[in-house]
Amino acid sequence: MLKAGDVILAAVQFTDSPALKIRPAVVLFEDMGNVVVAGITSNLKMKGIPLCKSEGAIKDSVIKLNYIFTISDEMVYRVLFHLNKEKKRLVFDELCKRLGGLEA
Residue 14 in contact with residue 21, Cβ under 8 Å? Predict the structure, then answer.
């Protein structure tokens, strides 16, 4: 069972190609076999939440909250590590800011 904050290796489809690529992602939530994730890139020029090697990443990276998608749990190869509490809070706070327009 995947948990929010798990950093996974999964097969994902990019918007510019029909091909699947193996990439890291952060689990936001899982429900009935569907896993909602945010992509991770090692391109440090991209905007997002920094993720360092000291936190478990293979190389310094960025969590891209502008790249959220749903995959099947069958597309998950493995869990790499779990975000610490502070990093999970940063992800949560940034998502809340971005979703603020949905408030009634």
Answer: yes
Query: Residues with Cβ < 8 Å from 95, sequence gap 6 or more?
Result: 28, 65
Which residues partner with 13 through β-bridges?
A: 20
Q: What is the pTM of this model?
A: 0.91
For 14-69, write each residue's pLDDT tens digit. 767 788 889 999 999 999 999 999 999 999 999 999 999 999 999 999 999 999 99
| CA-angle at 86, arms to 70 and 13, nearest 5° | 20
Q: Which domain holds residue 13?
A: 6-102
User: In this structure, is residue 1 part of a structural domain?
Assistant: no
Per-position DSSP letters for 66-81, written without gaps between them? EEEEEEEGGGEEEEEE
